[in-house]
Specification:
- The complex is a heterodimer of chains A (490) and B (248).
- Chain A is an alpha+beta fold and 490 residues long.
- In chain A, 40% of the residues lie in helices and 17% in strands.
- In chain A, helix 5 packs antiparallel against helix 6 and helix 6 packs antiparallel against helix 15.
- The longest helix of chain A has 29 residues.
- Chain A starts with a strand and ends with a helix.
- In chain A, 55% of the residues are buried.
- Chain B has a domain of 137 residues: Rossmann fold.
- In chain B, strands 7-6-8-9-10 form a 5-stranded parallel sheet, sandwiched between helices. Chain B has a 3-stranded antiparallel sheet with strand order 2-3-5, with no helix packed on it. Chain B has a two-stranded antiparallel sheet with strand order 1-4.
- Chain B is globular.
- With 248 residues, chain B is of the alpha/beta class.
- Classes of the chains: A alpha+beta (490), B alpha/beta (248).
- Chains A and B meet through helix 3, helix 4, helix 7, helix 8 and helix 16 of A and helix 1, strand 6 and helix 4 of B.
């Protein structure tokens, strides 16, 4: 076999991962994706070993629920044929490998900087008819930094190039430097502050599996509940922001205020509006009590009618629909070629959802998830997905709070990571698929921690979506994706 | 039209009438209180992810604290977090809570630059810059102006251009890649101007302290007018902090 198949959160000994010669490694991984929409690359990265750079490629198969892992060792500063020339799913992964290790690719179509900020020559179009618009790194609102360079013909966008890296905090390196569990958990909570539950669940699931600890039902329960509440809160906030960008003030105010009771419930449960401090490996400091269950049921009872009322108004309002329909379209073929995940895949009919394909925590057992799929790939589809996923998540939450498990008193578990292991953990955050990978050495110390936010795949979809749209529609296109800068830059 | 009125009616009154006395729901972790303990009490070294706790006497530095509450869970007899969300100070030392102290965190009026209250007392426009912020403080700063917190009722607003601003609000630990842009943005704000650090990451680097990818020269070379702790900052913490800086 050219690869080893494992399931989500099932670590594997490093020795069991086949090590292939680079040409075979390339052919095998590219062939696996060929003509298979149910497979995509969830992570592809390298790290320095004494023998050179060891590359690991992880291909997820949605049909078999498995992940196929293979590896290859290449020399530093070597020149290789790229995966990207045959499949664009690998573009960002290879840009990162090139930037981190100086590996050159002879046929990579676009080896531009990934996180490095330098005098980079943006794509140019020589014509007196065209002009360029540069936006950022600092934007006109309270949002994270990134640079957008538009080439426009009058008001019409011909091309958008996105340059990120401004947020780079060196978080993967800090995972190795800071070696206590609480430091690493805090780092996981700060990968992307809008996806605290998603990233922290990915970390603790990985850490527990790497240390051979089986979490009890109450821990898996609290993580699932936190992730679904996070989805409701952020989707509702996004609906507010989309209304803001199409100048629908009533929607902006109502959805905006509806986010508050959900995040305030996080505060009632765990003391923090964005769920920081809530999810911990091996324990939970803030048990979900019967009183909290009653409170949550009450919060949902008052949330739902107001959410439904404003939603039925928004989705019938001609002036709102005309701004959303056929704006920022990305086709099925395009998302497949880019390899998008999460909402940015489901908006165009590409069925990708880790809750179904690679179940974790309560998914696949207490919650049998059916992804919300739309076909048009426009702002309208992305808005519809949010509305319907909020409804769906409310249903899941109501179902699981019918039977609340007993929680143990919080006590620290003594964790020891297994030696020479490779661990992978996938979760479905509100934005899409989150992937964390870890490798340990022969004394069980971390030698690599690799984080992939869904934004890693999806930024290119935003760039494609705005082509031929008016530049004035850029804000609503951007907001309808709502991608993470810090999740990409790490 | 009637639909719209019905929707508005169903929302009721959402705004918080008095943001200086409002109660926060649940178990918000605000200003900690540390009980006096026999001298020499030591905590395990791995208790605090950001080394915000020091011993003899026991102190918690709110500029480093991530408010995870781990210390209060493990040593409930020593450390408790109160619901007091007024955590801002204009002095870095003002953020250090010592054992046995139960007084509020305050802005020291003697140390506020004179022109701040005279010029910005009734109108303050701020430019926010995220320099490695994880989007949690950014979300909460956006929330300061939603229909509930409604900070603009005080004449305090976030504006798009530094040319229109009276000051800068920094979130995030300040990455190397954002340091030059931050400096350019600050220089574009007309004098006199103020600097506010929002969140633990901005104040001390937080969990990112020590990363080679940070460049915190800006903090050491400029006078900071207000420190607003939190991970992320609570909207009420921010609004009350700015109001006390302005003497309101």
């Amino acid at each position: 076999m050219n690869y080893i198949s494992i399931y989500n959160n099932r670590p594997v000994g490093l020795k069991e991962i086949p090590e292939l010669g680079y040409p075979e490694f390339l052919r095998s991984n590219v062939d696996m994706l060929n003509g298979r929409a149910d497979r995509h690359c969830v992570n592809y990265f390298g790290y320095e070993t004494g023998a050179g750079i060891k590359l690991f490629c992880c291909i997820a198969d949605d049909t078999t629920h498995q992940i196929y892992i293979s590896s290859s060792v290449v020399g530093e500063k070597s020149t290789l044929n790229s995966f990207t020339a045959q499949n664009h799913n690998f573009e960002n992964f290879e840009r990162e490998i090139h930037e981190n290790f100086g590996i050159k690719y002879s046929d990579h179509p676009w080896l531009k900087p990934f996180r490095k900020i330098e005098n980079y020559p943006f794509c140019k179009a020589e014509s007196e008819e065209l002009h360029e618009v540069g936006v950022g790194p600092i934007h006109a609102g309270i949002i994270e930094p990134g640079h957008f360079r538009f080439i426009c013909n009058g008001e019409q966008i011909m091309h958008l190039e996105i340059q990120l890296g401004f947020q780079h905090r060196g978080i993967e390196q800090l995972f190795l430097q800071k070696n206590t569990l609480i430091e690493r958990t805090t780092l996981a909570e700060n990968i992307a502050g809008d996806t605290v539950a998603g990233h922290t669940a990915a970390f603790v699931n990985l850490w527990e599996s790497l240390c051979g600890f089986a979490p009890d039902y109450s821990l898996e329960y609290s993580r699932t509940l936190a992730m679904e509440l996070e989805r409701v809160a952020v989707h509702t906030g996004d609906l507010a922001a989309i209304c803001g960008d199409i100048a629908y003030q009533l929607g902006n105010s109502v959805y905006g205020r509806l986010r508050t009771p959900i995040i305030n419930f996080f505060q009632e449960w765990g003391g923090n509006r964005l769920a920081k401090g809530l999810i911990r490996a091996g324990k939970i400091n803030y048990p979900f009590t019967p009183e909290l269950t009653k409170r949550l049921a009450h919060v949902l009872d008052t949330f739902e009618p107001d959410f439904d009322e404003i939603s039925s108004k928004l989705f019938k309002l001609p002036s709102a629909l005309s701004r959303m329909e056929k704006t920022g379209v990305v086709s099925y073929d395009e998302v497949l070629e880019i390899g998008t995940v999460g909402m940015a895949a489901r908006m165009s009919g590409l069925r990708r959802d880790i809750r179904t394909s690679h179940p974790f925590n309560l998914y696949g057992s207490s919650i049998i998830h059916e992804p919300v799929i739309k076909r048009h790939g426009d702002v309208y589809s992305r808005t519809q997905i949010r509305k319907e996923e909020v409804r769906q998540s409310l249903g899941y939450i109501r179902k699981i709070i019918e039977n609340v498990p007993e929680f143990r008193k919080p006590e620290d578990v003594h964790f020891t990571a297994a030696a020479n292991m490779f661990a992978i953990s996938l979760t479905e955050g509100w934005r899409g698929e989150i992937c964390h990978c870890a490798i340990t050495d022969n004394s069980g110390n971390l030698v690599l921690y690799k984080i992939k936010d869904p934004s890693h795949h999806n930024w290119m979809a935003l760039a494609m979506s705005v082509r031929n749209n008016e530049i004035s529609d850029f804000p609503v296109c951007n907001k309808s994706f709502n991608l993470s800068y810090c999740g990409h830059d790490l | 039209m009637l639909d719209n009125l019905r929707i508005m009616w169903h929302q009721g009154k959402q705004f918080i009438p008095d943001v200086t006395t409002a109660k926060v729901p649940g178990i918000f972790r605000g200003r900690p209180v540390i009980c006096s303990t026999p001298a020499g009490r030591l905590f395990p070294a791995d208790l605090c992810p950001t080394k915000a706790i020091s011993a003899n006497p026991i102190c918690i530095d709110l500029g480093r604290c991530t408010f995870c509450g781990e210390c209060a869970v493990k040593f409930p007899d020593v450390i408790t977090f109160t619901q007091d969300y007024k955590l801002s100070s204009n002095e870095r030392e003002g953020l250090i809570i010592k054992e046995g102290e139960e007084g509020p965190v305050l802005v020291n009026p003697d140390k506020v630059r004179k022109e701040i209250r005279r010029i910005f007392g009734s109108s303050l426009k701020l430019r926010q810059v995220s320099a490695g912020g994880d989007n949690s403080c950014e979300l909460e700063l956006n929330a300061t102006n939603n229909v509930q917190f409604d900070m603009s009722r005080f004449g305090i607003d976030f504006v798009a251009s530094p040319r229109h601003a009276d000051g800068i609000v920094i979130t995030g630990p300040i990455t190397r890649n954002m340091a030059p842009s931050l400096e350019i943005c600050y220089n574009a704000i007309p004098n006199p101007k103020i600097i506010i650090l929002a969140g633990t990451d901005a104040i001390s680097g937080g969990i990112f302290d020590g990363s080679p990818e940070l460049d915190r020269t800006f903090i050491s070379t400029h006078h900071i007018d207000l420190y607003v702790p939190g991970n992320p900052v609570h909207p009420l913490t921010f609004i009350n902090g700015v109001l006390s800086l302005l003497g309101r």
